[in-house]
Amino acid sequence: MKQDFTGKSAFVTGAGSGIGRATSLALAARGALVWATDFDETLASQTAAMIEEAGGRSEAILLDVRSEEHWLAALEKSDQGKEGLAVLVNCAGKSKIGDTFSMPLEEVRTVFQINVEGTFLGMKHGIPRIAAAGGGAVVNISSLAGLKGISGMTAYCGSKGAIRMMSKAVALECAGLRNQVRVNSVHPGVVDTPAWQKHRPDELNPDGVSGMQSLDCHEVARTNVPIGVACSAEEVAQTVCFLASDAARHITGAEIAIDGGMTAG
Fold it and tell me: Is the pTM of this model over 0.85?
Protein backbone atom coordinates (compact mmCIF):
# COMPACT_ATOMS: atom_id res chain seq x y z
CA MET A 1 0.00 0.00 0.00
CA LYS A 2 1.31 3.45 -0.89
CA GLN A 3 1.59 6.34 1.50
CA ASP A 4 -0.63 8.52 -0.65
CA PHE A 5 -2.59 11.34 0.97
CA THR A 6 -3.91 12.93 -2.22
CA GLY A 7 -7.37 14.34 -1.66
CA LYS A 8 -6.90 14.35 2.10
CA SER A 9 -5.85 16.95 4.64
CA ALA A 10 -3.53 16.69 7.62
CA PHE A 11 -3.54 18.87 10.73
CA VAL A 12 -0.13 19.19 12.40
CA THR A 13 0.58 21.00 15.66
CA GLY A 14 4.03 22.32 16.47
CA ALA A 15 4.58 22.60 12.73
CA GLY A 16 6.88 25.60 13.01
CA SER A 17 10.09 23.65 13.62
CA GLY A 18 11.73 20.31 14.31
CA ILE A 19 9.66 17.14 13.99
CA GLY A 20 6.47 19.10 13.35
CA ARG A 21 7.98 20.91 10.39
CA ALA A 22 9.59 17.76 8.98
CA THR A 23 6.29 15.90 9.31
CA SER A 24 4.37 18.69 7.59
CA LEU A 25 6.81 18.65 4.67
CA ALA A 26 6.67 14.85 4.42
CA LEU A 27 2.87 14.70 4.43
CA ALA A 28 2.65 17.45 1.84
CA ALA A 29 5.16 15.63 -0.37
CA ARG A 30 2.76 12.68 -0.31
CA GLY A 31 -0.14 14.77 -1.54
CA ALA A 32 -1.81 16.02 1.63
CA LEU A 33 -3.13 19.51 2.14
CA VAL A 34 -1.34 20.41 5.37
CA TRP A 35 -2.74 22.71 8.01
CA ALA A 36 0.51 23.84 9.62
CA THR A 37 -0.25 25.12 13.11
CA ASP A 38 1.99 26.59 15.75
CA PHE A 39 1.99 28.93 18.74
CA ASP A 40 4.40 31.04 16.69
CA GLU A 41 2.42 32.08 13.61
CA THR A 42 5.57 33.33 11.85
CA LEU A 43 7.20 29.90 12.08
CA ALA A 44 3.98 28.20 10.94
CA SER A 45 3.86 30.52 7.94
CA GLN A 46 7.48 29.69 7.12
CA THR A 47 6.62 25.99 7.08
CA ALA A 48 3.60 26.61 4.85
CA ALA A 49 5.78 28.67 2.50
CA MET A 50 8.36 25.87 2.31
CA ILE A 51 5.62 23.43 1.34
CA GLU A 52 4.24 25.77 -1.31
CA GLU A 53 7.72 26.35 -2.74
CA ALA A 54 8.15 22.58 -3.05
CA GLY A 55 4.91 22.32 -5.02
CA GLY A 56 2.67 21.23 -2.17
CA ARG A 57 -0.34 22.80 -0.52
CA SER A 58 -0.45 24.23 2.97
CA GLU A 59 -2.03 26.91 5.09
CA ALA A 60 -0.68 28.25 8.38
CA ILE A 61 -2.87 28.61 11.46
CA LEU A 62 -2.08 30.17 14.81
CA LEU A 63 -2.78 27.63 17.55
CA ASP A 64 -2.12 27.65 21.27
CA VAL A 65 -2.82 23.99 22.03
CA ARG A 66 -3.61 24.81 25.66
CA SER A 67 -6.75 26.67 24.63
CA GLU A 68 -9.95 24.83 23.70
CA GLU A 69 -11.18 27.98 22.00
CA HIS A 70 -8.03 28.07 19.85
CA TRP A 71 -8.55 24.44 18.89
CA LEU A 72 -12.15 25.02 17.88
CA ALA A 73 -11.26 28.08 15.80
CA ALA A 74 -8.31 26.34 14.11
CA LEU A 75 -10.29 23.23 13.23
CA GLU A 76 -13.21 25.29 11.98
CA LYS A 77 -10.81 27.02 9.64
CA SER A 78 -9.56 23.65 8.41
CA ASP A 79 -13.18 22.62 7.82
CA GLN A 80 -13.22 25.11 4.95
CA GLY A 81 -10.93 22.89 2.88
CA LYS A 82 -12.62 20.59 0.40
CA GLU A 83 -10.37 17.72 1.49
CA GLY A 84 -11.67 15.82 4.48
CA LEU A 85 -9.48 15.66 7.57
CA ALA A 86 -7.69 12.31 7.54
CA VAL A 87 -4.61 12.87 9.70
CA LEU A 88 -3.96 14.60 13.01
CA VAL A 89 -0.40 14.82 14.31
CA ASN A 90 -0.12 16.16 17.86
CA CYS A 91 3.48 17.32 17.87
CA ALA A 92 3.46 20.54 19.90
CA GLY A 93 5.37 20.02 23.11
CA LYS A 94 7.44 21.52 25.87
CA SER A 95 10.29 20.06 27.87
CA LYS A 96 11.55 21.04 31.29
CA ILE A 97 14.77 19.96 32.95
CA GLY A 98 15.33 20.64 36.64
CA ASP A 99 15.37 19.48 40.22
CA THR A 100 11.99 18.02 41.18
CA PHE A 101 12.24 19.34 44.72
CA SER A 102 12.66 22.98 43.79
CA MET A 103 10.65 23.13 40.58
CA PRO A 104 7.77 25.65 40.71
CA LEU A 105 4.37 24.03 40.33
CA GLU A 106 3.41 26.50 37.61
CA GLU A 107 6.25 25.26 35.42
CA VAL A 108 5.03 21.68 35.84
CA ARG A 109 1.50 22.76 34.98
CA THR A 110 2.69 24.49 31.82
CA VAL A 111 4.39 21.29 30.62
CA PHE A 112 1.23 19.28 31.27
CA GLN A 113 -1.03 21.89 29.70
CA ILE A 114 0.92 21.86 26.44
CA ASN A 115 1.86 18.18 26.24
CA VAL A 116 -1.11 16.45 27.84
CA GLU A 117 -4.05 18.82 27.62
CA GLY A 118 -3.01 19.92 24.13
CA THR A 119 -2.94 16.32 22.91
CA PHE A 120 -6.25 15.59 24.64
CA LEU A 121 -7.97 18.58 23.04
CA GLY A 122 -6.63 17.61 19.63
CA MET A 123 -8.14 14.15 19.93
CA LYS A 124 -11.36 15.41 21.48
CA HIS A 125 -12.13 17.77 18.62
CA GLY A 126 -10.10 16.27 15.77
CA ILE A 127 -11.19 12.63 15.87
CA PRO A 128 -14.91 13.32 15.27
CA ARG A 129 -13.92 15.25 12.14
CA ILE A 130 -11.69 12.43 10.91
CA ALA A 131 -14.47 9.92 11.54
CA ALA A 132 -17.01 12.07 9.72
CA ALA A 133 -14.69 12.30 6.72
CA GLY A 134 -14.46 8.52 6.43
CA GLY A 135 -11.68 7.65 8.85
CA GLY A 136 -7.95 8.10 9.19
CA ALA A 137 -5.29 8.29 11.84
CA VAL A 138 -3.96 10.22 14.81
CA VAL A 139 -0.26 10.12 15.60
CA ASN A 140 0.74 11.53 18.97
CA ILE A 141 4.36 12.50 19.45
CA SER A 142 5.50 11.21 22.82
CA SER A 143 9.15 10.54 23.67
CA LEU A 144 11.71 8.09 24.92
CA ALA A 145 10.90 9.87 28.20
CA GLY A 146 7.41 8.38 27.98
CA LEU A 147 8.89 4.88 28.12
CA LYS A 148 11.65 5.23 30.73
CA GLY A 149 12.43 7.56 33.57
CA ILE A 150 15.13 10.21 33.25
CA SER A 151 16.48 11.97 36.32
CA GLY A 152 15.76 15.68 36.31
CA MET A 153 12.88 15.38 33.83
CA THR A 154 9.98 14.51 36.11
CA ALA A 155 7.42 16.78 34.48
CA TYR A 156 8.45 15.86 30.96
CA CYS A 157 8.49 12.11 31.64
CA GLY A 158 5.11 12.33 33.34
CA SER A 159 3.55 14.25 30.49
CA LYS A 160 4.98 12.02 27.77
CA GLY A 161 3.94 8.90 29.66
CA ALA A 162 0.44 10.33 29.83
CA ILE A 163 0.41 10.81 26.06
CA ARG A 164 1.37 7.15 25.62
CA MET A 165 -1.49 5.88 27.77
CA MET A 166 -4.06 8.35 26.45
CA SER A 167 -3.22 7.16 22.95
CA LYS A 168 -3.93 3.56 23.91
CA ALA A 169 -7.18 4.41 25.69
CA VAL A 170 -8.52 6.51 22.82
CA ALA A 171 -7.43 3.88 20.29
CA LEU A 172 -9.61 1.34 22.08
CA GLU A 173 -12.47 3.82 22.35
CA CYS A 174 -12.33 4.47 18.61
CA ALA A 175 -12.12 0.75 17.91
CA GLY A 176 -15.22 0.18 20.01
CA LEU A 177 -17.05 2.87 18.07
CA ARG A 178 -15.91 1.35 14.76
CA ASN A 179 -15.28 4.90 13.58
CA GLN A 180 -12.29 3.92 11.39
CA VAL A 181 -9.88 6.14 13.31
CA ARG A 182 -6.57 4.67 14.48
CA VAL A 183 -4.47 6.23 17.25
CA ASN A 184 -0.79 5.53 17.87
CA SER A 185 2.13 7.17 19.64
CA VAL A 186 5.75 7.53 18.56
CA HIS A 187 8.64 7.85 20.98
CA PRO A 188 11.74 9.56 19.59
CA GLY A 189 14.99 9.36 21.51
CA VAL A 190 17.90 11.66 20.71
CA VAL A 191 16.76 13.73 17.73
CA ASP A 192 18.69 16.50 16.03
CA THR A 193 16.22 19.39 16.36
CA PRO A 194 16.37 23.01 17.58
CA ALA A 195 14.90 21.84 20.91
CA TRP A 196 18.40 20.82 22.00
CA GLN A 197 19.42 24.48 21.96
CA LYS A 198 16.61 25.65 24.25
CA HIS A 199 18.31 24.71 27.52
CA ARG A 200 21.22 26.40 29.23
CA PRO A 201 24.12 24.10 30.08
CA ASP A 202 23.55 24.61 33.81
CA GLU A 203 19.99 23.27 33.47
CA LEU A 204 21.11 19.91 32.16
CA ASN A 205 21.36 17.15 34.70
CA PRO A 206 24.36 14.84 34.21
CA ASP A 207 22.77 12.25 36.52
CA GLY A 208 20.00 11.53 34.02
CA VAL A 209 21.44 10.75 30.62
CA SER A 210 25.20 10.57 30.29
CA GLY A 211 26.50 13.56 28.38
CA MET A 212 23.37 15.66 28.94
CA GLN A 213 25.57 18.49 30.15
CA SER A 214 26.41 18.93 26.47
CA LEU A 215 24.18 20.84 24.05
CA ASP A 216 25.49 18.71 21.17
CA CYS A 217 22.92 15.99 20.48
CA HIS A 218 25.46 14.09 18.39
CA GLU A 219 27.81 13.86 21.36
CA VAL A 220 24.94 12.66 23.54
CA ALA A 221 24.01 10.08 20.90
CA ARG A 222 27.55 8.73 20.66
CA THR A 223 27.48 8.08 24.40
CA ASN A 224 23.91 6.88 24.90
CA VAL A 225 22.38 5.54 21.68
CA PRO A 226 23.31 1.90 20.99
CA ILE A 227 23.69 2.51 17.25
CA GLY A 228 25.79 5.59 18.06
CA VAL A 229 24.04 8.27 16.05
CA ALA A 230 21.26 10.79 16.60
CA CYS A 231 18.01 10.51 14.72
CA SER A 232 16.90 13.24 12.32
CA ALA A 233 13.50 14.94 12.37
CA GLU A 234 12.99 13.64 8.84
CA GLU A 235 13.45 10.04 9.99
CA VAL A 236 10.77 10.51 12.63
CA ALA A 237 8.51 12.04 9.99
CA GLN A 238 8.86 8.91 7.84
CA THR A 239 7.47 6.79 10.67
CA VAL A 240 4.65 9.26 11.27
CA CYS A 241 3.66 9.13 7.60
CA PHE A 242 3.64 5.33 7.68
CA LEU A 243 1.41 5.21 10.77
CA ALA A 244 -0.91 7.80 9.23
CA SER A 245 -1.23 5.88 5.96
CA ASP A 246 -3.37 2.94 4.87
CA ALA A 247 -0.20 0.84 4.96
CA ALA A 248 -0.65 0.78 8.75
CA ARG A 249 -4.39 0.11 8.72
CA HIS A 250 -4.05 -2.71 11.28
CA ILE A 251 -1.89 -0.75 13.71
CA THR A 252 -3.68 1.06 16.52
CA GLY A 253 -2.92 1.56 20.19
CA ALA A 254 0.75 0.90 19.46
CA GLU A 255 3.86 2.68 20.67
CA ILE A 256 6.74 2.97 18.24
CA ALA A 257 10.17 3.74 19.71
CA ILE A 258 12.50 5.64 17.39
CA ASP A 259 15.49 5.61 19.70
CA GLY A 260 18.31 3.67 18.08
CA GLY A 261 17.89 0.87 20.62
CA MET A 262 17.85 2.93 23.83
CA THR A 263 14.82 1.05 25.21
CA ALA A 264 15.86 -2.36 23.87
CA GLY A 265 17.82 -3.40 26.92
Answer: yes
